[in-house]
Write a structure and sequence with these properties.
By secondary structure, the protein is α+β, with helices and mostly antiparallel strands. It has a single domain (2-109), classed as Trna Endonuclease, Chain: A, domain 1. The chain is built from 3 helices and 6 strands; from the N terminus they run ββαβββαβα. The strands form 2 sheets. The chain has a 4-stranded mixed β-sheet with strand order 3-4-5-6, sandwiched between helices. Strands 1-2 form a two-stranded antiparallel sheet. Helix 2 (73-84) links the parallel strand 5 and strand 6 (88-92). The termini are far apart.
């Protein structure tokens, strides 16, 4: 956590922990993708499957960035591929942004 311009800025790790805590409380199955040698370029930080009572078999993908972070070229390509397949993708800069997306996605699908 850093203070920038009088505002608290969380690290990607801190934002990820908040989002993962929410998903766990909701009973959503998710996993953390680690980048490394041989990993698919552009793979987002988090991937999961919605609860069977919400959207059976549908996946979601979340790339976590700091407040001014942007997607790399590889991440943009992965996002486009996922969205063309009809899956959900979010670039989350905060827990609030994630929760707003989650609520909008949940309401849209119901």
């Amino acid at each position: 956590m850093k203070i920038k311009g009088g505002k608290i800025e969380l690290s990607e790790k801190e934002i990820r922990r908040q989002i993962c805590s929410f998903l766990k409380q909701m009973g959503i199955k998710w996993w953390y993708n680690l980048q490394g040698l041989g990993a698919y370029k552009g793979l987002p930080d988090l991937e999961g499957v919605y609860h069977r009572d919400i959207f059976p078999g549908k996946h979601f993908y979340i790339e976590i960035k700091r407040s001014k972070g942007v997607l790399s070229e590889h991440q943009e390509r992965f996002k486009k591929m996922v969205e063309q397949a009809g899956e959900d993708y979010l670039t989350a800069h905060s827990l609030d942004e994630f929760l707003e997306w989650w609520q909008k996605t949940f309401n849209k699908e119901r």
